[in-house]
Inverse folding.
């Protein structure tokens, strides 16, 4: 399977969860039960988990696609995975802060 077919298959696999999150977010806003501090924490956690999964599982284990082709990808892989870890840690810190401050108020 060529690289274009892999990207297309991967895009289809990731577009469903994104659409679900948009509808979930809209429903939480409508019902006024969205806790913004926790929502930000969840966003960063999700971004970090996705990026680490993509970098480790998709890029290395399954070799579905690479960050770049025809070059040594080691520096790109490190940058991708470290940035994913930073996103994940940001989400953890935001979640802990939200829990400590008791920020569970609804969005306006």
């Amino acid at each position: 399977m060529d690289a274009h077919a892999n990207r297309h298959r991967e895009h289809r696999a990731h577009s469903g969860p994104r659409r679900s999150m948009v509808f979930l977010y809209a429903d939480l806003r409508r019902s006024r039960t969205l806790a913004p501090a926790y929502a930000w924490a969840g966003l960063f956690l999700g971004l970090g988990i996705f990026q680490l999964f993509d970098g480790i599982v998709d890029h290395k284990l399954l070799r579905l696609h690479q960050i770049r082709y025809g070059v040594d990808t080691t520096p790109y892989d490190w940058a991708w995975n470290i940035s994913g870890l930073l996103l994940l840690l940001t989400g953890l810190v935001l979640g802990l802060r939200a829990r400590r401050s008791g920020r569970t108020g609804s969005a306006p």
About this structure: The chain has a mean pLDDT of 84.
